[in-house]
């Protein structure tokens, strides 16, 4: 044995040829600080090993190395000096691998991402099996590669390909990577180690010139000035268009490659180190790392629920073939769970099947499905007008009109039809689950399952636990949501649940400014361009549906009369009364149509300004953001304090996946902590006179005084 550590070991695989194998205690290999120390120690031993002819780098796991241990990042990045020292030291470990006095060959299987991909780059040759996926996804964390990726990748696959890989963070199959020269050979999984060892032998015996293969990575980038300038200019334009100003990482990646292009290895690494460290101190990095950690926490919780499920959902039913019901039926069938789609009107069923066909046709056009898949999915949806078709299903998703009386009758009738062990859920967006449960004889098998539109695109499903919902029901519904490819978050019952409950104070803050004469288009522009929402509040209201939003304000007013009172004179109510329902009928805050080429249009309508008495009162961008966001953050805090949602991480992910909260801000709680709790309280106090939605809770005020954190 040449070296034995906790996460990796080195030994001769046969005389003269050593195998450095990553073998962490957990399910995957990753670079935590301890593993990097062991990696350095192992490479030191290899450099001093006599009779060494070659080294292959392998993994004992089904996957190679998934990257750095991100759980260490936020704590590490809080100390600038420590971060600077760490990244400089860590990146030089990969130099040790590159500088071994013998040829090195990586044997790649499964994922080799981030630091795993950078390990491959430090080797002379890369042999992959057909399962391999490689990439540098650091921009998704608000970072750039920190272990030499921006220096080595352009020298291996050329600056144009490298810039695409790094600025997009895309993953690449073994075949794709081989086409651009990243992977040297692709073999069957059972031949991977044998093939890597064969390459090492060919290099050691002089059949392959491994020194010539290594040399370009040690030298300035081999590209002429004109070529390089054009490549960098193109990349800058694409990043400016796609990432914009809110995401600094892809911009920094281009700068690091540009600054290191004419440098030898040490100079290029220094440029990368400096750019990496700067990014660790940005709000976007902290937010995006926070999202990753929150996402892992949410997925971990969902898996625990799923493992506890005693009932497997093998056959589903959806009541209502409208936009939501049809979307849910499609998603269930697409993910392999056959579904009955029931409605009381044949034309609704026809429309539901037509919509499913339309979604599938688009998937076929984009290469995400083939005709066989399309036929299989459509044949897995059984449209019916008959109640008896529900017999034998494992779960029924009620998705009829958002009316408690109608839903109550449908739920009672459903319970009388299905088997005693069938689970019944409601896709209500605001109506109390406990109120709906009163229509059932056995409320233990009932809960909410709130999908978001469009169902096939939106990742979130809120699972709403009622007072009498059993643990078994929740577990089974979470498992079903996971089968559908969704991210389920379990919340407790209240009007609006989590996402819609915190949305309406945001819209109320927006409506308050309209009453003061502020232009809704100006507010949308600030909330989209400066805060980062995909849609401003006016546009969002039109997409949701003005009539739907108006109905929800009544539900929220009943639940929270002092904080969210119904205002018949606000903009939403006025537009609804004027039959301006938004995109669904072509007129809401904006006027909708199509241009000569059939592309959708969104334009201002002067009559709306007259209807709402908008006189163009101006407010600063900071005030517009404060007036909209303080109510949303306050309500999210109340949901956590009241136990509606279990953690700040779950609240952030629900808002990210359900409403499109700007990822570079990380969610309401991460945004709050970025601002600083004490600063947020001081800001909110400036607007407290506007009403209860602007008044912070005692819990927040106390946490701010004590210097606490919602992520502690």
From TrEMBL:
All residue ranges annotated as the 3-hydroxyacyl-CoA dehydrogenase C-terminal domain in the record: 496-592, 624-688
Top EC group: lyase
Superkingdom, taxonomy of origin: Bacteria
Single biological process term from Gene Ontology: fatty acid beta-oxidation
InterPro entries (UniProt xref): 3-OHacyl-CoA_DH_CS, 3-OHacyl-CoA_DH_NAD-bd, 3HC_DH_C, 6-PGluconate_DH-like_C_sf, ClpP/crotonase-like_dom_sf, Enoyl-CoA_hydra/iso, FA_oxidation_alpha_subunit, FadB
Gene Ontology molecular function: 3-hydroxybutyryl-CoA epimerase activity; delta(3)-delta(2)-enoyl-CoA isomerase activity; enoyl-CoA hydratase activity; long-chain (3S)-3-hydroxyacyl-CoA dehydrogenase (NAD+) activity; NAD+ binding
Keywords of the record: Fatty acid metabolism, Isomerase, Lipid degradation, Lipid metabolism, Lyase, Multifunctional enzyme, NAD, Oxidoreductase
Pathway: Lipid metabolism; fatty acid beta-oxidation
PROSITE patterns for this protein: 3HCDH
Catalytic activity: a (3S)-3-hydroxyacyl-CoA + NAD(+) = a 3-oxoacyl-CoA + NADH + H(+)
GO cellular component: fatty acid beta-oxidation multienzyme complex
Listed EC numbers: 4.2.1.17
Domain 3-hydroxyacyl-CoA dehydrogenase NAD binding, first and last residues per copy: 316-494
Family statement: In the central section; belongs to the 3-hydroxyacyl-CoA dehydrogenase family. In the N-terminal section; belongs to the enoyl-CoA hydratase/isomerase family.
UniProt xrefs under PANTHER family: TRIFUNCTIONAL ENZYME SUBUNIT ALPHA (PTHR43612), TRIFUNCTIONAL ENZYME SUBUNIT ALPHA, MITOCHONDRIAL (PTHR43612:SF3)
Cited NCBIfam families: FadB, PRK11730.1
Protein name per the record: enoyl-CoA hydratase
Originating organism: Idiomarina xiamenensis 10-D-4
């Amino acid at each position: 044995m040449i070296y034995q550590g906790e996460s990796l070991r080195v030994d001769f695989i046969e005389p003269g040829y050593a195998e450095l194998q990553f073998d962490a205690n957990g399910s995957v290999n990753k670079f935590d600080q301890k593993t990097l120390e062991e990696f350095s120690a192992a490479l030191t031993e290899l450099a001093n090993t006599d009779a060494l002819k070659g080294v292959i780098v392998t993994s004992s796991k089904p996957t190679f190395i998934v990257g750095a241990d991100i759980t260490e990042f936020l704590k590490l990045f809080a100390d600038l000096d420590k971060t600077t020292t760490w990244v400089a030291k860590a990146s030089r470990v990969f130099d040790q691998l590159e500088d071994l006095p013998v040829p090195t060959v990586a044997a790649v299987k499964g994922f080799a991402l981030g630091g795993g991909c950078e390990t491959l780059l430090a080797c002379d040759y890369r042999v992959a099996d057909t399962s391999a996926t490689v990439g540098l996804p650091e921009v998704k964390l608000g970072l750039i590669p920190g272990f030499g990726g921006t220096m080595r990748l352009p020298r291996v696959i050329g600056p144009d390909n490298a810039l695409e890989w790094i600025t997009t963070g895309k993953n690449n199959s073994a075949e794709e990577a081989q086409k651009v020269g990243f992977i040297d050979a692709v073999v069957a999984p059972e031949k991977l180690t044998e093939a890597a060892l064969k390459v090492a032998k060919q290099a050691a015996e002089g059949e392959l010139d491994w020194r010539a293969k290594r040399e370009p990575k040690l030298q300035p980038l081999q590209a002429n000035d004109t070529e390089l300038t054009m490549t960098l200019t193109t990349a800058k334009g694409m990043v400016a268009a796609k990432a914009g100003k809110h995401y600094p990482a892809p911009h920094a990646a281009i700068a690091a490659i540009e600054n290191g292009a004419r440098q030898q290895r040490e100079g290029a690494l220094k440029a990368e180190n400096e750019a990496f460290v700067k990014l660790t101190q940005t709000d976007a990095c902290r937010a995006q790392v926070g999202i990753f950690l929150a996402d892992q926490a949410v997925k971990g919780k969902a898996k625990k629920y799923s493992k506890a499920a005693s009932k497997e959902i093998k056959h589903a039913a959806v009541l209502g073939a409208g936009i939501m019901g049809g979307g849910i039926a499609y998603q269930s069938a697409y993910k392999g769970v056959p579904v009955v789609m029931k409605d009381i009107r044949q034309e609704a069923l026809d429309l539901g099947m037509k919509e499913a066909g339309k979604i599938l046709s688009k998937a076929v056009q984009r290469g995400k499905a083939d005709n066989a898949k399309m036929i299989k999915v459509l044949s897995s949806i059984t449209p019916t007008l008959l109640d008896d078709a529900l017999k034998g299903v494992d779960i029924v998703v009620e998705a009829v009109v958002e009316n408690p009386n109608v839903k109550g009758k449908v739920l009672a009738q459903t319970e009388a039809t299905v088997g005693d062990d069938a689970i019944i859920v409601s896709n209500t967006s605001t109506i109390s689950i406990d109120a709906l449960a009163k229509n059932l004889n056995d409320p233990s098998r009932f809960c909410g399952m709130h999908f978001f539109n469009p169902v096939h695109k939106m990742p979130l499903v809120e699972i709403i636990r009622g007072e009498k919902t059993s643990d078994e029901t929740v577990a089974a519904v979470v498992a079903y949501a996971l089968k559908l490819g969704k991210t389920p978050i379990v919340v407790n019952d209240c009007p609006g649940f989590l996402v819609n409950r915190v949305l309406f104070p945001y819209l109320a803050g927006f409506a308050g400014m309209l009453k003061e004469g502020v232009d809704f288009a100006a507010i949308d522009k600030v909330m989209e361009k400066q805060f980062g929402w995909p849609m401003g509040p006016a546009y969002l209201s039109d997409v949701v549906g003005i009539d739907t939003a108006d109905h929800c304000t009544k539900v929220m007013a009943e639940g929270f009369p002092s904080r969210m009172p119904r205002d018949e004179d606000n903009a939403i109510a006025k537009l609804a009364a004027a039959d301006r329902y938004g995109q669904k009928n072509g007129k809401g805050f904006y006027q909708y149509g199509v241009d000569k080429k059939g592309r959708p249009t969104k334009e201002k309508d002067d009559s709306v300004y007259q209807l709402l008495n908008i006189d163009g009162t101006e407010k600063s961008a900071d005030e517009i953001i404060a007036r909209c966001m303080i109510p949303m953050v306050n309500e999210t805090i109340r949901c956590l304090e009241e136990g509606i949602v279990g953690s700040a991480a779950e609240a952030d992910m629900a808002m990210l996946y359900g409403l499109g909260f700007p990822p570079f801000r990380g969610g309401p709680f991460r945004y709050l902590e970025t601002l600083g709790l004490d600063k947020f309280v001081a800001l909110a106090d400036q607007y407290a006179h506007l009403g209860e939605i602007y008044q912070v809770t005692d819990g927040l005020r106390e946490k701010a005084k004590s210097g606490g954190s919602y992520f502690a």
